[in-house]
C-alpha cells in the first residue's frame, strides 16, 4: 500500500503476532519498521517497551515508553506499563506517580498497585 499509516499498522500487527509467539527479536524488528514508517504511531513504542521489560532492560523500556508518551501524553496504558519498569528499577516513587496518572486517565487497575506500593 502507498498509505504509510496503513503500512505502519501492518508491521505493527505482524510485530504483535511475533510478540505473542515469543519471537521478540522479530517483533522488535517489525515494531522498528513501523516506527520508521510512521514515527508518530505510539503503539510500537509501547509494545517495544513491554518486550524490554520482559528482558529486564528497564532503562531501554523506559526510553520507549517516554517516546510513546511524547506522542500521546494521555495514554493511560503507557503510564501503567512504565510504572512496572520503574518498580523493577527500585524507583517506587516514580511508579506511584505513573500509576496515579494512569488512574487519573481512567485505568482502574492502577488502584490495586497504588494501594499495594504507594504510601
Task: Describe the overall structure.
By secondary structure, this protein is mainly alpha-helical. 77% of the residues lie in helices and 0% in strands. It is built from 7 helices and no strands. α1 runs antiparallel to α2, α3 packs parallel to α5 and α6 runs antiparallel to α7. The longest helix has 17 residues. The termini are far apart. The model has no long low-confidence stretch (mean pLDDT 95).
- Amino-to-carboxy terminus distance: 51 Å
Tell me the fraction of residues in β-strands, as a range.
under 5%
Figure out the total of helices. Answer: 7
Q: Which class of secondary structure composition applies to the elements?
A: mainly alpha
In total, the number of strands is 0
Shape: globular
- Give the uncertain stretches in residue-range form: none
The overall pLDDT average reads 95
Please state the CA-atom Rg, rounded to the nearest Å. Answer: 15 Å
Order of helices and strands: HHHHHHH
Task: Describe the sheet with the most strands.
Answer: none
Helix content estimate? over 70%
Summarize the structure.
The protein is an all-alpha fold.
What descriptive keywords fit this protein?
119 residues, 0% strand, 7 helices, mainly alpha
